[in-house]
Fold this sequence. Notes:
disordered N terminus, metal ion binding, EC 2.3.2.13, 36% strand, lipoprotein, 7-stranded mixed sheet, 6-stranded antiparallel sheet
Amino acid sequence: KLDLRTTSEIGRFPGAAPPTRVELTIQNEGEKKREEGGCLWWLRKMCPCCCKHPNATSYDVTDKVEFTKLPTPAAIVDPPKPKPENGEAKETDGNDTYFKLCENMTLSLASNLIFTPLLLEGKLSVCSVDLLSSKAGQNRQEHHTDLYHGDELILRRGQTFQIEVELNRPFSTDTDKLYLELKTGSLPLVSKGTHVIIPLVKHLEDERWEAKIVEQNGNKIKLSINSPANAVIGLYELTVTTSSLKGDATTTYTSSKNIVMLFNPWCEEDSVFLDNEEERKEYVLNDTGRIYYGTEKQIGARTWNFGQFHEGILEACLFIMEKSEMPPSGRGDPVNVVRVISAMINAQDDYGVLVGNWSGDYSDGVSPTAWSSSVEILRKYHSTNGTPVSYGQCWVFSGITTTVLRCLGIPSRSVTNFQSAHDTDVSLTTDVYLNENLEPIDYLNRDSVWNFHVWNDCWMARPDLPPGNGGWQAVDATPQETSQGTFRCGPASVNAIRSGHVYLKHDTPFVFAEVNSDKIYWQRNLDGTFKQIYSEKKAVGHCISTKAVGSDKRADITSLYKHEEGTDSEEERIAVETASRYGSKPDVYSTPVAEDVSVEVKVDGEGPRVGADAQLKILVKNLSSQPRQATIHSQVAVMYYTGVLKGTIKKEQMPKTIDWVLTYQQYQSQLVDQAAFMLTLCGRVTETKQVLANQTTFRLRTPDITITPIGDAVVGKEMAAKITFTNPLPSTLKGVVFRVEGLGLQEGHEVVVGDVGAHSKVTLTEHFIPSQPGPRKLVASLDCEQLSQVHGVADIVVLEQ
């Protein structure tokens, strides 16, 4: 846990000689009260909260007093300062006042320490500060931070909050002065907004730091404090300084508890303001969600525990910001914060949270498909002082990014783009190179199309861009390409992406290519040069998906990223051509030719399942009134979900439309993560010389894990859940491990099962005690070498006891 407190000497006057200690016994009630003497009377007058009368409650009576032996004939007393348990008080100025008092003070130990009347009026000091930080209290309820674990004061900027200050005597506006200070970072500066001085005012005004007394009861005052909507977020240290209006002495009290300041989507003046309560509940307060994967024709979904309010997660998020070495003064701008977070979630060049691995070998870590929660990853990273966690792929990077941004108060969601292009040469096109026989040239095909890719949207204003570019911003923590020398991406305005305004920051060209680039086919000539033979305009950026607001349904947000594609979509073509002018191949588009023959691939139902034959239907259609002849070449290769091909497993020539089959025996030894394939079709129409080209990705569906709750779900009462899984393969699964977790139900843990025989059924029974009421999700995933993306979820409504 981060702690910005600084220690200092307590109760020392600068320049005073080293003290000698003398014990003074205070008489108990019923003994000779006159023997208390003037010293105790003076202490009670100066600081009644520390030296209360013996018959009063709530304060311990001090039984030892320090004396200071000064280099003068008379012995001078150094009165003790308040030492509250929850803070520090120190003298910051007052030598002149002290010695003036000493000159008029007559001290005689023999005559019971008689003081002159000059000390009757005590100096104002703070005894304690109550931050009113209870989860059930007004502050955290009004600031929508009551879901965070613990009893720290967690606030959102641009909104008032209250604290209580107990003084050693009643506060008087006529004679006393009080102000607060908040400091964040290792070198707080007023000019940078990291050292804030909060004055006491009669009336609060918006958009500034200030405090007002709203209630006074004896020695206690309640302050209402206002913060601006552009305040720096992070961890603050609080001090309270008191003095007289004459300014002759000040006393400073440092709170032992820190204050956490977050972004505020509920505040209209905050740049992350989101004007819809249901969307705020979804994109800020919902701690579970859905992440989509697969292909556009076979979309899969898995539940993800974001867990932004879980114990230790807020501390981990603040730790990430500290480790990024981002100047605290820049933490008030969500554009800066999001850009830094996108770099820090991956470990590629700054020892960030998660190590990416697409090799298929995860023996020294956890397989990316085994994770179903951000909690374990973030807590492990924090507890090891920033050692990157192994391993992750795009959906894990996105899930963690959603957790961190929601935790800090920035509305965020995980977004999946199907047929997602990876442009490696800033051409804003996806280039496919073929040889003289229309066969792919693998070593030249550096651009790839991932069958899916997951990134994030986050919501904020963009005052750094032309008007109209605020709202949803794309940010990607998966390390694909560097941006200004660091593996990060965004925030890129989704509106700018849609319009093709790729010259606007940050990383808009890369995201545009992911969702709206054209796929250009190039054929090698006999002299080794290449000519453009075909342009596929609807090849990438399909079914862009996120979880719907308020439900577990899938919401299609493709229209936010691109105009509708089609023959009549002039807006979409204008956006593509506008973007291409800023790419490395501005004159890429081919001359239109007669295109009256089409080829497409269809997948029936939910598609083929792993362990069975894969059957697809290839349709070649003649759209003209004249007969046409065409020869089509097909090639299928095992593909990582990133679009990288592992190897070709079947090639054939097809003179006509056929039902295409890939048997289990042909692919069983070649499967990789996601069980994905790419089918490439190329051909030419004899009469018109039209080139036919099509690349289709498909995956083999994996079985689900079934979770069945057993017993009543009540807080504090044990219940159970039965978890079942059936091996779909005609071969043994080796080293099967289940991972089970449920926020508010039980901590995440592993269950080692071992080998599971062909078509065998596994049943586990989990026993746990729910700790939080309300709707909860129990999530399980399976990890083994032969199968990936096997998971299940059960919805459980937990009742109060």
